[in-house]
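Review this:
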Amino acid sequence: MDRILIGEDNVVEWLRLRNNVTEEYVTTATVRATLKDSAGANVAGAVAVALRYVADSDGDYQGTISAAATSGMTDGATYYLEVTATGDGTGFRHMAVIAAYHGAQ
């Protein structure tokens, strides 16, 4: 995800989550995503969003940051998506995303 769309639902994914020791795909982790603004403040409505295991996948998890949470974002501003996995599979991802309206280049 390089962009996050303003005023729309945005799907967040963690694909192929594996156990750090066994390298087996994980189906029982707790995975949560939080969106932060450029100052590091949490975006209201986008805190600890649950990503659920996708049935019959190889450790794939998906969740949705709601349109309501993204509606107040600033076009062209940088936000940070942090995704944390705990339990049988652990990990942390931190990525910059740019807020944009659908169809913007």
